[in-house]
Amino acid sequence: MGSEKAFDLAVPKTRLEFKNVTRRFTEAGAGVQGLSFEISAGEIVCLLGPSGSGKSTILRLAAGLEDPDSGEIIIDGKSVAGNGSLLPPEKRGVGLIFQDFALFPHLSVLENVAFGLRRLPREKREAIARNVLGKVNLSHLADAFPNILSGGEQQRVALARALATRPGVMLMDEPFSDLDTQLRDTVRNELVELLRSSGAATILVTHDPEEAMRVADRIILLRDAKIAQVGTPEELYFHPLDREAAAFFGDLNVIHATVAEEKAATPLGTVAAKTFDPGTVVEVLVRPVDVALSSADTHGTHAARVADRRLVGGSCLVELAAKGEGMPAHMVAQVSLDNAPEVGSEVGIMFDPARAHIFPCRKAH
Fold this sequence. Notes:
This protein is α+β, with helices and mostly antiparallel strands. The chain has helices at 55-63, 109-114, 122-135, 151-164, 181-198, 209-215, 233-238, 243-247, and strands at 16-23, 32-39, 44-48, 70-75, 78-82, 85-86, 94-97, 169-173, 201-206, 218-223, 226-231, 253-260, 263-266, 269-272, 281-286, 291-295, 302-312, 315-322, 330-336, 346-351, 357-360. It has 2 domains: 16-243, Rossmann fold (3-Layer(aba) Sandwich); 254-360, CATH 2.40.50.140.
């Protein structure tokens, strides 16, 4: 085996396409309605949305574990479901990684990784498995059994098993959710680097917006079994299509205003409102990170009292009791630890209007 050629991690360039795919609601979980999207070779796309939005259903449809009621699924230019075709999971060229890793407890790490290569001769199968274990830095655990592995090690074994068959499409269902925070960041970074180097078209299901922002080339935001918005992390964060999309990526301060002369004037600044009719009541949404604090008498700011503050990672969330007409009674700012004011102090608050989001008011005020 020492002379065996090193395993090539690169996979065949493959595109995954959903064309107007519908899977009606079943007892097993949420369905999806009229989904159309494409994932290119080497692209990592995160399916993001609340429970019941259809994320796992999409994964199961792509894998062949469920069949669409209508529409078509295409892998590498070939129809695998719909339009009169139905290809079984083992013939689709996909790799699957589930939340619980689904390792076989009675098989060693090496045997788990080699499991999908059963049609190859034993020596070839073992050589490939050892090579892939080297890629995930687990060669020293080849003879161990899953029950003695840490969560991160089990995750790497699951990825090695999926990569060993060189799938053109990789499907991952909440793969990091059972890992503790510090380990999750480390393992996620390692595995994403391996996925990118493999060139697989990858779908990663998550309910964590921060994880999607860190990992994805594009995000498909799902709501009520339909696609609410598709775009890069920057597009979804800075240009959400509606209030719900904006709120999915973090807390929002809400200031109500009435449109006049294509503008919505708030005590903290005037926001462009060219698409709204005069007299329309709107919600101006400002993320806590975009609220700036200064001394109470700074020109152009609005007065507020610091009601509370708490540490969140390397920053500080400052709860503000705002004063004055047109201001919400409660606002939140996210500032650096060095700039966090004391509880009870008076501060001035403002925001950059260009960073605000504006949508129709959901109810009259």
